[in-house]
Predict the 3D structure of the following.
Amino acid sequence: MAPAKKGILERLDAGEVVIGDGGFVFALEKRGYVKAGPWTPEAAVEHPEAVRQLHREFLRSGSNVMQTFTFYASDDKLENRGNKLSFTGAQINEAACDLAREVANEGDALVAGGVCQTPSYLSCKSETEVKAILKKQLDVFVKKDVDFLIAEYFEHVEEAVWAVEVLKETGKPVAACLCIGPDGDMHGVSPGECAVRLVKAGAQIVGINCHFDPMTCVKAVKMMKEGVEKAGLKAHYMVQPLAYHTPDCSCQGFIDLPEFPFGLEPRILSRWDMHAYAREAYNAGIRFIGGCCGFEPYHIRAVAEELAPERGFLPEASEKHGNWGAGLEMHTKPWVRARARRDYWENLKPASGRPLCPSMSSPDGWGVTKGHSDLMQQSEATSKDQLKQLFDRSKSQ
């Protein structure tokens, strides 16, 4: 019988580096298994082989957390704006848990059950109603005995606190991530204050995921850490950012960029950028380091390779990847062989090959947040009249 795996808090308490996985929603959309717009995870039931394979690629690349593919799997999101599915939220959540556990058992990985923000909150539903939505997902995670829980992708700390309070009822370790930058949540609550509220609600791990690039997210987590320490509290810290450069983003992050979601490829971070991110996060005292939208397995492999001295080993996928391009020593062309060195890749300034494109964009800052009529939940599809109003407004910005 295999020895029991160490839990998430046991690993973090010991100072170990925990590497998360990457961005399932964007990766599976590109592969043809997720629809952009609703971004819901029915692929866990419809195409389990695709979800399983992506889990395996992240595991092979160094991830030791398999997060259930349950992003936006709350019942209110699954039924929002004409999104008609033939599967229930429970079926999707159960399938996602089974896939994550199957792959986690193939290595030294843990399973994290994840919940995120709800359309109900944005539609000004009550705390009781929002918590009831979250609890339906939680019931599946308890049934499937996930190793720990993550409340992630919350724009408002108030809703994140509600989520933590629900998750804490299980007795399992709880992590909480906001999708905010250094300017704070959508109501202007600072990262430090957000973190304090989350820790007081019961989260043992706090951090940032999505919406911003790695260095911006690390900066926000540093602010969280400062706030928690100033309040005399203790926590572990995590970061799971975008794999896109976002220096031009406003407070709502990359969803305000005109390239979102189908024109973001020119912004993708290289594997060498990921080395710098991993080191910056580690030096900031963050020990749970992963990725979100845009992160592919090779990005996670780069994180694992950068932190191999601290972890004591390389990921399996590094067998096919020479350190800092060392495999290029075997290339046919001599000028490519000359690139088999760290200083070349660390100092490279990649060109986009797009001579008429700007380096940065002007975000669409509509200033829409909780309670605005444009965010109100509706089960019927967005009407042509509603779309026309949005198109006209977009042209006038």
In short: The radius of gyration is 21 Å. Strands lie at 18-19, 65-67, 110-116, 148-154, 174-178, 205-209, 236-240, 288-289. Residues 305 and 323 are 8 Å apart (CA to CA). The chain is about 40% helix and 10% strand.
